[in-house]
Design a protein that fits this description.
Blueprint (H helix, E strand, L loop, with lengths): L2 H11 L5 E5 L5 H9 L4 E4 L2 H10 L5 E4 L8 H4 L5 E5 L2 H13 L4 E6 L13 H10 L8 E7 L8 H22 L8 E3 L6 H6 L4 E4 L1 H4 L7
Parallel strand pairs: 1-2, 1-8, 2-3, 3-4, 4-5, 5-6, 6-7
Bound molecules: pyridoxal-5'-phosphate.
Pyridoxal-5'-phosphate binds next to β8 and α9.
Length: about 220
């Protein structure tokens, strides 16, 4: 099936309040244009250079979400235009985003990536580390970033009960932190969870942003 049909099929499944990030990594600008022509505006990329190349040639009303691991030395390249940095996994990265955003007089929305899967991963705050960071409160002095919610990935498994447990863990952390630290912050509202194989489960568990790639654009060819 073609990209536009795939896109419409996914969109048709999303309830009100859930937005789609079309994950276009490893797919060419032409594929993004096709989704764009069907009305899609939010796209997700995970590598700075690939994103910057696409940003340069594609329409400027696209909202780019950075969904991968972001190295601090790459922040400066995306700071002028990025709409949402989804996978902030250290306080150090948050301070660097704040610094680079300031240079462009911007406030960049960020999500805190939380490690809720059973799988080993180098990335993401543990829930305890993130809670500690939020309690410490220094982030409140970072006026050029805005913490807009949380992001996470479930274990890559066929066990749907496990996936759902992990997504519900992320939702519970969001609720806890919303009440404890962001009760007066309407901007803290996003729970980014769900990919091609598990977005339906994520929606049941309270997702507000699903990040769907291969189901729309087809399999990625990593050998280039
Ligand atoms: C690649 C990627 C996705 C999309 O994965 P699909 O299985 O192709 O839908 C979602 N989130 C993150 C963080 C990714 O790196």
């Amino acid at each position: 099936m073609d990209i536009q049909t795939n896109l419409r099929n996914v969109l048709a499944e999303l309830p009100e309040g859930v937005r789609l990030v079309a994950v276009s990594k490893f797919h060419p600008a032409e594929a993004i244009e096709e989704a764009y022509r069907a009305g899609q505006r939010i796209f997700g990329e995970s590598k700075e250079q690939e994103l910057s190349e696409k940003y340069n040639v594609l329409p400027k009303d696209i909202e780019w979400h950075f969904i991968g691991h972001l190295q601090t030395n790459k922040v400066k390249y995306i700071a002028p235009y990025i709409t949402l940095i989804e996978a902030v996994d250290s306080y150090k990265l948050l301070t660097e985003i704040n610094k680079q955003a300031g240079k462009h007089n911007r406030t960049i929305p960020c999500l805190l990536e939380i490690h809720v899967a059973q799988e080993e991963s180098k990335y993401g705050f543990t829930p305890d580390d993130c809670r500690e960071m939020l309690e410490a409160g220094e982030w409140k002095e970072l006026h050029n970033i805005r913490i807009a919610g949380v992001m996470g990935m479930a274990t890559n498994t066929d066990d749907e009960a496990q996936i759902e447990r992990e997504f519900r863990t992320l939702k519970a952390l969001f609720d806890e932190w919303k009440q404890a630290f962001f009760a007066d912050e309407p901007a803290f509202k996003e729970i980014s969870m769900g990919m091609s194989h598990d977005y339906r489960i994520a929606i049941r568990a309270g997702s507000t942003l699903v990040r769907v790639g291969s189901k729309i654009f087809g399999e990625r060819n990593y050998v280039k």
